[in-house]
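Lab notebook, bench 4. We co-purified these components, and the gel suggests they stay together. Before we commit to crystallization screens, I want a quick structural picture of the whole thing.
Request: model the full complex, all chains together.
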Amino acid sequence: MHHHAPRSTPPPAAPVVPLGGGRRGIGPDDLRLTGGFWGELQERNANATLKHCLEWMERLGWIANFDRVADGDTGGPRPGWQFSDSEIYKLAEALAWEYGRTGETWVNEALEALTGRIAAAQDEDGYLNTCYGHAGQPGRYSDLSSGHELYCVGHLLQAAVARVRTVGEDKLVDVARRAADHVCREFGPDGNPGICGHPEIEVGLAEFGRALGEPRYSEQARVFVERRGRGTLAPIALLDASYFQDDVPVREAEVWRGHAVRALYLAAGAVDVAVDTGDAALLAAVERQWARSVERRTYLTGGMGSRHQDEGFGEDWELPPDRAYCETCAGIASVMVSWRLHLATGDVRYADLMERTFYNVIAASPAEDGRSFFYANPLHQRSAAADVRPDAVNPRAEGGVRAPWFDVSCCPTNLARTLASWQAYAATVEENTAEGDTVSLLQYAAGEMRLALAEGELALRIATEYPHAGTVRIEVVDAPARSGLRLRVPHWADGATLSDGSGERDVEPGWADVRGPLAPGAVIVLELPTAPRLTWPDERIDAVRGCVAVERGPLVLCAESVDLPPDQSLEDMRVDVSGPLRAEGDGALVRTRSAPARTESPGRPPYRPAPPTGDAGPERELRLIPYYRWARRGGSAMRVFLPLA
Amino acid sequence: MHHHAPRSTPPPAAPVVPLGGGRRGIGPDDLRLTGGFWGELQERNANATLKHCLEWMERLGWIANFDRVADGDTGGPRPGWQFSDSEIYKLAEALAWEYGRTGETWVNEALEALTGRIAAAQDEDGYLNTCYGHAGQPGRYSDLSSGHELYCVGHLLQAAVARVRTVGEDKLVDVARRAADHVCREFGPDGNPGICGHPEIEVGLAEFGRALGEPRYSEQARVFVERRGRGTLAPIALLDASYFQDDVPVREAEVWRGHAVRALYLAAGAVDVAVDTGDAALLAAVERQWARSVERRTYLTGGMGSRHQDEGFGEDWELPPDRAYCETCAGIASVMVSWRLHLATGDVRYADLMERTFYNVIAASPAEDGRSFFYANPLHQRSAAADVRPDAVNPRAEGGVRAPWFDVSCCPTNLARTLASWQAYAATVEENTAEGDTVSLLQYAAGEMRLALAEGELALRIATEYPHAGTVRIEVVDAPARSGLRLRVPHWADGATLSDGSGERDVEPGWADVRGPLAPGAVIVLELPTAPRLTWPDERIDAVRGCVAVERGPLVLCAESVDLPPDQSLEDMRVDVSGPLRAEGDGALVRTRSAPARTESPGRPPYRPAPPTGDAGPERELRLIPYYRWARRGGSAMRVFLPLA
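Here is the predicted assembly.
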């Protein structure tokens, strides 16, 4: 283990608290959101999504799987996939954060009820899984490639982290400790040399070890990270070892590949291990993978995963907008990695990518009622999808409409735990800087922030309609004698200004340090430009050659066919960028012409001896709306990248 | 059953012999290829591929699965997928056609040896499958969605068709008859109302019924076609009913969708049923599906299937070149459908698509030694693939190199049976026309053709280096008193000329009737233009916007990175089409400039606030070669569609 300077303040009640590094996040209770973009998403999560997930998993029998194990009734058919336990754990984590944030009684009661049923299914020796290891079931760890047993434990540990950091040790934490002890005994240096086909145990053990101060767990996380990439997992038919990142050791890999969520969970765990053990080479490896993958394998929305086939990253520059998988869970996992890298390095680029992903992947998933979700988040939908039935399990992760539940339903509960703890990613505290502790605001949301710093409490009142407007007004309510404050100026914010005690000035993308004393009553105003702007894809992205996108602030915009008159088609729109873009609401209006006349050749493949010619049709205006709101008015064709006239 | 005029000549020994319609194909023994493009492919198939498939299936134990059933030794693990029997049947079909074509002793011996082992595994009641229905195996027809039992029988019947039409009834035919009888009993109107997840039994039963004159088989084919599309197949996880075309009845569908090979085998069977029963509406339905799918869901190569995920068609205009699946088997299946539609209607467009598919999908699959194969046939490979080991089973259908065998290895044996019977698709005979019987030449290959017409034998000597040169010289060696001859002028052949007894004249794409008497010694010369030409994709194909392709005659060309100096990259090439294209060998040279200078933004997603600018770099020439030969010089990056400067 690496040795660290002692903390000057207690650790935050946050999902990620590295043992060292001198930079920490904040707890979800350190920032109370007061409405606004994230406040509303969080309220909807609290009031609708949590219960929705609970109801669906009760109805489908996924929770009752624990009862069947407890009752010794495991012979018959078992509903759900082999990894369905993890959904209950992710919901438990969401409930734990939610209770930590609000103290709502029903939330705690729901979590305690779940905990009781989970605990009753735990075997004497700590093993806990409803699909393996009991009468009539396959044996424990009999299918490490596909069985997801360690993956499920990893999610249990993350739930326990949320619990121990918000209310302290309880039954859930006890269950998790016994499960973690079992894993360490079973898979320790002298035990089973295997790894899990789906990474997650690494990040779970690392954080649970941090939360309990138990170095055995952290060490086991390190062992799992180091074992991976050596081809020990039995192949899954039609997939190669890169699917579960067992092709190249983490510290040797150059880029993320294979199943996106697996690659990203593994990377998050590797950062935890690197930070806690002071392994600079491992940290540098993940940073390198992040950079290459962001530069060449990431969508404009921040989405990751170009292939439906294996829910995976494609090759460099393989970024088709129509078949973009961009799983909601991969967006969440990307935030997990970037957050850990930001805490480890302080690099603003990680926070920039988190913002892009928050607004254009994570916020896009839930419907307005918090009871249906996008699983895949494509950037192009050719034809309007039919609505799904509100009581239907959606077989696939596609379709262009949000669905209440999925056959593999990882995204709703993942979203629930992320939204319940969203504030954790909004700011950091850097200890012992020249100004005392320095607070960095990373994400902008209206709310009241109260942070315990070394020399006292810093309280800020943040007012903003961000991202729908670019003004962020920060009033200092209370402040210690010495503290620093700096604001992230997003990389797209060309022309931002900052007003503080030293007057108004232009600020460049990156960090803007607030000048002048942070005293009660001081007001700081950051103005971020939110006029619509054109964004051009790299020429190497073949799938969007000859196209342009439009963004406003952190929001990617898109065109929807529901905004077109019936005689017009989205596929015929060609954007004229010779004039200025016009703002409309929080979207934009762009000038278009229709596509040139076409030569139809009945019964011939769609390739012609001459390019299309003819009149480009009348000029029209095409409405663009924020991408995160697409398909809220029913199924619709949609495009983010618009072909140029 | 529909009633037909009696034939004036015996039916050809061909894969497809409709009961009526007055137009028939020719048998593989009616045209002896003398070298040339298809002659060489066929020789390589005979001398290498047939033995290669036999050796691999023996080595992997797929043939021994029949022995295990015969020996009552079915308790243990069984090598191969549940559908591996079909590979043995496809190889049997290939051997049957090959023996019919050449009379080679070893071919007949190999087929008889296989037949003996197959026959020994047949149950008393005619059921035949090595994966289901015996001790320690799942029950018969216990998994119609995935079990492929009827699919396997369909391939057995196609093998028996080849046998009965080339040598007459033998043991293989007897085995097939008992299997077909079993299927009719089991799945007849009063029996199991199910269908097979993978169509193929339809086309097998229909043709076997034709070959034996057994209307029960044809009727059962009709029943299977009509039952489909009504949602009776149990869902396969993560796939919907369109995957196996159980979403919409065949006669109601507008377009092909789902798994491409399944969709196309079903369509082929539906044409057989429509023709044999005189069901004009069903025939029109398949014609409509063909037209819509060809116009909007077909690659420049003729390849079909845009998605790896389900080996399936995508949506209209979803034609990514990099992730094109274009399975070799789907190319073969497309030929099966187009051939049946051509026989039914005489429409030249079907033969045009067959040519495109023959040269740019089917011919692309086998390596020069006939011992490795492409499974997927993408139109864009971003990075050069590593070679596969010559003894390795390739886990996946991708990779940019030909592989000796695949985990799912449907393509090698499918290719073998298709190449062994390729001549069958080269010409048709239309009976009782004004000129007596009229012969239509559809595909051009050097060889000796001898056709038994109503009034005597027509013998032609065809000399051509097609497709590498555009001259086709046809000498009449023998001819009856009355007969007609016409030549297909491909749809791309702008500027073709024909010399015959009436002199030389321009001919338009479509049919060119030969004028003047067809008498011994007459010489007809068709000149097809084979200069390189530009081909422009429809504007609605998003994935190749701003690109152009180059073709020569029936050959699609491509650029390979192995032809570039080490300091140049295929992704940087931008084609300048302002000047003429230059022919080089059977390829072309195009002028290019390198892409504009790029703005790199480390750690940022690949989207910029301004389009790329700067010097476009020096002019260079880029070499293009026929697509079917790509990756023959080792792994290579490759592009068919070239971005425009």
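Residues 23 and 430 of chain B are 4 Å apart (CA to CA). Worth comparing against the SEC data before the next meeting. Chain B touches chain A through 77 residues (CB under 8 Å).
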